[in-house]
Design a protein that fits this description.
Blueprint: E1 4-7, E2 10-12, E3 18-24, E4 32-38, E5 45-50, E6 56-58, E7 66-71, E8 76-81, E9 90-97, E10 110-111, E11 115-119
Length: 120
């Protein structure tokens, strides 16, 4: 199984930036990968997805403010977040799957433990 470990969360002021990292225990070169977030009382939502050929899609709520990227040599996924807003406050998770999960959290087989982002 692929193990995923996120880092980079923290507390920032509105308008600030954070870069989240997610290190995989093995290659995710051909995997669907993504970043999700979940705020208390809300469902887990996909905010950035990269498919197996590197195409990116973003949730409307973050388009223009976040960028997903991947370094295959380091087995690492990134999420650069800029112009952060208080409504971005949530637990952020990276996920991966060797199939075709699309944007559906339930179809991703591998998850990290999450990293908290708090924007005030």
């Amino acid at each position: 199984d692929v193990q995923l470990v996120e880092s980079g969360g923290g507390s920032v002021q509105a308008g600030g930036s954070l870069k989240l990292s997610c290190v995989a225990s093995e290659t995710i070169r051909t995997f669907f990968v993504g970043w999700f977030r979940q705020a208390p009382g809300n469902e887990r939502e996909a905010i950035a997805i990269m498919n197996s050929i590197g195409s990116e899609t973003y949730a409307d709520s973050v388009t223009g403010r976040v960028t997903i990227s991947k370094d295959n040599a380091k087995n690492t996924l990134y999420l650069q977040m800029n112009s952060l807003k208080p409504e971005d406050t949530a637990m952020y998770y990276c996920a991966a799957d060797g199939g075709l999960p699309g944007r559906c959290p339930d179809r991703f087989g591998y998850w990290g433990q999450g990293t908290q982002v708090t924007v005030s």
